[in-house]
Amino acid sequence: MLVGAYQLQSPRKRECEDAYSIDREMKLFSVMDGVTPVCKYRSSEGHNAAYLAAQHFKACFEAAADSPDEGHDLKELVLAANAGLWDLMVEAGVNMTRRYEYWATCVVAVWIKGNIIQYAQLGDSMIVAEYKDGRIEALTHDSVKGIQERAVRYRQTLRGQQVELPEEEEFLKDPLLTQFVRSMTNTPEGYSVANGMEEAADYIQYGEVDRSELQGLLLHSDGLYRPGVTAEQVYRQVSEQGLQAYIDQLLEEEIREGRYQDDKTGLLLRF
């Protein structure tokens, strides 16, 4: 198995809010994309909530190698790390009545156990598989996609239930816009994310695939997307250009066209 990894920090950020882990012995691989926070919390080392959440998951995945358990399930491992994130927030004095201030990260991970590959996902980071018959298919879906439209419909529902909310025009700007959307995490109307909530267990995407059927897997943060490009197309372009060339070219394109430049992280596994 060949493993390629590349990460590029956004020039707009003071630190990279993505993280990744590679454990070749355990065959456990992950990519995290910390959610840029609205809270102003900083650790004693100066790290923000997005960095802390992503690095917490990285540390949890890497710690799994110290106490390997072949019977351990990847879903359980992700949810245990998620529970640990809640404890970290409480210890840091985060106001737990404000969901929009929770530390949060998107997560994708695969654990290869013999001929079985377990996968798990929370958020909008993605896992894409290339099959030996030539098919390229996303194993996960982006639960964040369309969140603004769902938020509008949800506010309409709440108003119909006589819930008092600000006028809709107020939700076109921050901080109210982001606060409302972040309050929808791990709910039927919202999107999944690792933010310490027990409810994440109800929205985590997980499953298994047969390793013998695959010739490649791509794990990546949402920074690898181009407008209008599908996860399957991202895989094809990464496969053709190489991970580093694809990411470097994408950043140059974003700067040239004045688009937002996010952190970018990818792991490409070839069997």
UniProtKB/TrEMBL annotation:
It holds the Pfam family PP2C_2. PROSITE patterns: PPM_2 (PS51746). Residues 2-271 form the PPM-type phosphatase domain. It comes from the Bacteria. This is Protein phosphatase 2C family protein.
